[in-house]
Amino acid sequence: MTAPPPSDRLRDGLRAVARIARWEVGRSAGVVDRRTAALGLVALLLAGAVGGATLATGGAALDRDVYRIGVAADSPYHEVVRESPALAARPPDLGSLGRSVEVVVRDDQFYVADSRKAEAALSSFRSAVRRHNLNQMEAEENVSAAFPVVVTLRYADRGGSPGAVADGGSGTETGAGTGGVAGDDPASGDETRSGGDDGSESEGGSDGGDGGADDTADTAGGTGGTDGSLGVPFLGGSLLGGGNSGSPADISPPFPFGALVLAFVFFVPMNFVIQPYGSSILNERINRRGELLLVAPVSPTAIVAGKTLPYLATLVGLTAVIALAIGGGLTSVAAVAPIAALYLAATFVGGMFARSFKELTFVTVTISVFLTSYAFVPAIFTNVTPIALISPLTLVVHDLQGTGVTAAQYAFSTGPFYVGAAVLFTLGVGVYREEDMFTQRPVPLKFLDALDSRIAGPRSMAVLSALAIPFVFIVELLAIAVLFVLPVDVSIPLLLLVVAGVEEVAKSVHVYAGFENDFTNRRTLRTALILGSLSGLGFFLGEKLTAVVQFVGLPDLALGQAAFTPVGVGSAAALGLLVAPLVLHATTTSIAALGASRSRNWYFAALVPATLLHAAYNFAVVSVLG
Amino acid sequence: MIEADSLRKTYGDFPAVVGSTFDVERGEIFGIVGPNGAGKTTTLKMIAGLIEPSAGSATVAGFDAEDPEMRRSLGFLPEESPLYEDMTARSYLDFFADLYDVPSETATERIEETLDRLELDHRDRRLGDVSKGMKRKVAIARSLVNDPDVLVYDEPASGLDPLTTNYVLEFVRELRDAGKTVLFSAHNLYHVESVCDRVAIMNRGEIVARGTVPEIRERYGTTEYRVFTSVPVPAFETDPAGDRHVTTVADMAAVERVREAAGEAGGEVVDIRTDEPSLEEIFLDLAAETVDGPRGAQ
C-alpha cells in the first residue's frame, strides 16, 4: 500500500486533534450537570462582579472610613479627606471630638481626641496630606520647582554577597540639598520634600523617606498612591540598571509586592485546570477505557494533543483575561503561557504514571507546590538580582512595573519551561500505548519505561542526555536561588556538589533504563562504555545551550560562574578547556553506566564516585578561573 | 485478509506468544481458543496493531498491522469494553464514526441500522446507566461504525447471559455472511465449534493445533466406530445393546473385520455409528500434552 504524502498526514492529524479536542470539551461539559454548571456560573459572575467593583473603586479598602475627621467643606483639608479611603469627613464640631470624630480641623488648628484611635487617625491624616501634596507637586509643569532635589539610585554589583541585599548598594545623589528634614506636620500645610543636607543617601533604597515618624505608613501609602488604583508599585525604571526615582518619597525597598501579588493571580486557574486534566488522562487508563482510541486511526500524539488543547486554550484565555484585568500586556501572557504548558505537561506525565486517583492527587499537589515555588520565589528578587529571571513570573513583574523585557531575557526565562514541557509531553506520549498505559507499575518504573520508550539504539542515549538539559538547568538554577542566601564560602562548594550530582543522574538514568530493558542482553563492559560515552557527549553538546545564560549576565554573579563556568561556556579561559568537560562527562557517565549495567544497587553505588569526580573537577575549574 | 507470520511477543524473559503463524481468508470466521494466559489476547492485539511484536509480522487487509492506515479496515472489540459512561450510545458512536472519517450522513444511517440490527434500545441514555449486555452491543456497534472488512473480536460473548450470547454469536455469523472476515477468541469451545470455520488452539503461547474442526478432529482426536451386529462377534469385545450387540473399534479396517466375523457367526452388521470427540476433549488432550514443558520450548 502507498503511504499518504506528509501533507495529507499532517492535515489528517490536525483534523484528528480537533475532533478529539471537541470531544474532550463535550465530555468535560457533560460531566457537570446543568444545575452545578449554573451555580458555578453564578459564582463566577459574582466573583467577577465583586472583583470588577473592587478594581473599579481602587482596590479593596478594608479600612474604608475607619477614621472620622471633622473638617469644613470649604477647608483645603476637605479634599484630602475625601481622597483618602480610610478617612471620612464630618462636620467640624468640637463637641463631637472623641465621640463621633477623632480629629477636628478648625481655623487651621488641629484638635485630637485623647485615644489611641485618634492618634492613628492623625497619623493617617498626616500621610494623606503628604500624598495629596506630592500629587499636587507631581502635577506641576515645572518639575525642578516641585522637586529641587533629584535622587538617582544606582545599585552596585554585590559580588554575590548576600549581605548586599540589605545594603542595597550605594546610593548617590545629584542636585542640591536644601537641608533640613521635611516638615511632616499637617498643620503647616506646606510640606516640602528634600533630601539630606549632605548630598548623600546613606541607606540606599531601603529608606528614602523623609525621616518622619510615620515613615512606614508613608512608604506603603506612597507605593499605592503612585501606581494608580491597582497598587502596582512604580519604580521609575529598572533599579538594576539605575534610574531616576523621581522623588525621595518614591524610594522604597526593591520588593515588588503589589506586582507579585497580582502576578500570583495567574497561578490560580492553573491549579484548578490541572485537576480535571489529570483526571481525564487517568480516566483513559482506568479499566482500559482508552484502548479503543488507541485502535482508532489516530496517533497517540494526536490523542494527547487533542485532549490537552482545550485545557491549554482555557489557561491561555484566562491568562489573557487576567492580564487585561490587572494591567498586564502581551509580555505577561507570553510569560505565563509556558508556565501553563509545563503545568499541563507535568500533570500529563503524572496522569500517565499514577496508578490511582490518590496517587494523581499527590502528583498534582507536588506539581503545584514545586512549580509555584519555582516561579514565585525567584520573582521576589526581580529588582535585586538577575537570578530572578529563572522564573517567567519575573517577566510578568517587569511587565506590570512597566519595565521592558528583552528577547534574550524572555528566552532565558521561558526556554527551560518550553523545552521542559515538550520533553515531558514526549516522554508521556512514549508510554501512551497499550503495553504501558494499563500496567500497574510503580511510578519510578513507569518513569524508566517512559525513558526506555524513547531508546531506539545507542545514539538515543546522547539525545536523551541533551533533552535532560532543561531539567538540569531548572534544578541548578533553583539550587542557585536556594543557596543564594548562604555565605559564598559555603554555598559555592555545596552548589558544585549539587550540580555534579544532578548532572550525573541526568546523564545516566536513561542508560540505566536502557540496561533494564533494551540492553538487557548486552550487559558488557564495552556496551557500558559506549553508552556512557555517548550519553556524556550528548550532555556536553546540550550543555552548550546554556550559553543563553550569557545574554542575561548570570555568570556575572559568583554563583552563576560557579554553576556554569565549568561547562566551558564562561570566559575565554574556559573555552580553552573545551575538551576537558567532554572527557569529564564521558568518563563519569561511563562510571555510572558500568554500575547501571550490573544492577540497580551497583548503579546507585557508581553514582557516588562519578559525582565526586565531577564535583572535584568543577571545584578545580572554579579555583583555576578564580 | 489476515496473515500472521511467526508472531512472537516476549515481556522481559517471559514469552507470551511463541511464533504464531496462521492466515484468515476473506469471509471466514477464524477462532482462537485456549486457556487463560495462552496468548490469545496478545495475538489478537498484535494483529490489531495495539501491541508491537517482538518478532514476526502480521498483515491485515494488505496493510502491515502497525500501519495506522490499517485501522481504517479494522473493527476491534476488546474483551472488556469499558465505555465513556458519561456519553450516550448515539454520541459515543458518532464520535468514533467521526474519528474514522465517516461522513456524517453515512454515519447516522449506519449507526441507526446497526443499532436496529442489534435491537439496542435506550440510545440516548448515558452508557453508565445501561446493562452489561447493552454495553456489549454498543461496543460491537462501535466496531462496525467504519464498516470494516476485518473484525477482531476478543471474547465477544464474555460475561453475557445465554440469550445475549446466542444473539451475539448469531450476529457474528451474519457478519460473516455479509462478507466480513472475523477473527475471534473464546474460552467457550462450544461457541467456537458452532461458529468458526477454522480454529487454532493455543496453549502456553503457542499454536498447538490449527485447521477446520473436522480436520483437527481427524488429526488430533480419536474417532471411534461403534458396530452394531445381530449376533455376538467372536474374537471381539462385544457388549449387549438391547436386542443387538455393539463392538467398538478404532478404524474402518477393523469395522470390516467385525463385519466378516459377524457373517461367520451367522449374523450381520445392522448399524455403524461414529463417536467423534468434541473440540473440548481434543483441547484438553493437547493442553495436557504440553503442560509439563517450559513455555515456548515445546
From TrEMBL, chain A:
GO MF terms here are: peptidase activity
Any one biological process term the GO annotation gives: proteolysis
Print the keywords alphabetically: Hydrolase, Membrane, Protease, Transmembrane, Transmembrane helix
Q: Where is the composition biased (Gly residues)?
A: 160-182
Known InterPro entries for this protein? PrsW
Q: Does this entry carry the keyword Hydrolase?
A: yes
Provide an example Pfam family for this protein.
Answer: PrsW-protease
Annotated transmembrane regions: 255-274, 309-327, 333-353, 360-390, 410-432, 462-486, 492-515, 527-552, 572-595, 602-625
| Region described as Disordered | 159-228
Q: What is its EC number?
A: 3.4.-.-
Superkingdom in the source lineage:
Archaea
Protein's name according to its UniProt entry = PrsW family glutamic-type intramembrane protease
Q: Which organism is it from?
A: Haloplanus ruber
Automatic annotation (TrEMBL), chain B:
For this chain, the family text in UniProt reads:
Belongs to the ABC transporter superfamily.
Which molecular function terms from Gene Ontology are attached? ATP binding
**Cross-referenced SMART domains:** AAA (SM00382)
Instruction: Note whether Cell membrane occurs among the keywords.
Output: no
Q: What is this protein called?
A: ATP-binding cassette domain-containing protein
User: Is Transport among the key words of this record?
Assistant: yes
List the lineage, top down. Archaea, Methanobacteriati, Methanobacteriota, Stenosarchaea group, Halobacteria
ABC transporter domain mapped to chain residues: 2-229
| Keywords, in A-Z order | ATP-binding, Nucleotide-binding, Transport
